[in-house]
Write a structure and sequence with these properties.
7 helices, single chain
Length: about 130
């Protein structure tokens, strides 16, 4: 039987914003092909990487709040801004292809963007 992080989180009663954020944390992290993080990273790189991830998440949350995105649209926004396509998003979030495309369409309409590149630029400039 395949273990689903979202189902496990829901069963544990952790299906709230922090619970979903914890599941998505795996999508935000850069890991090697075998799923283990590089162990030889210096402490400076680790601190820099952590603040970069935090900055990125905060910018996504600013945009989500500014444009009144739903919680699920915010999850999809985060992955879109990371460069994931709809197929990868449906895999990461365990949703149907049509559902992923609908979320993406709604996000683009609410943010008034037409491409993923525009969305990525918007996230980069959210703190300005």
């Amino acid at each position: 039987m395949v273990s689903c992080p979202l189902v496990n989180a829901a069963a544990a009663g952790a299906f709230d914003a922090p619970g979903v954020a914890a599941v998505l944390e795996g999508a935000a992290g850069d890991s090697s092909a075998d799923g283990k993080e590089k162990e030889d990273a210096s402490s400076d790189e680790a601190v820099s990487s952590g603040s970069s991830k935090r900055w990125f998440k905060e910018n996504c949350e600013v945009i989500a709040n500014r444009y009144l995105l739903s919680r699920r649209e915010t999850d999809v926004l985060f992955l879109l801004a990371k460069g994931y396509n709809s197929a990868a998003i449906q895999e990461k979030l365990y949703i149907a292809e049509g559902t992923a495309k609908t979320h993406i369409r709604h996000i683009y309409r609410k943010l008034d963007v037409h491409t993923q590149q525009e969305l990525m630029r918007m996230v980069e400039g959210a703190d300005r």
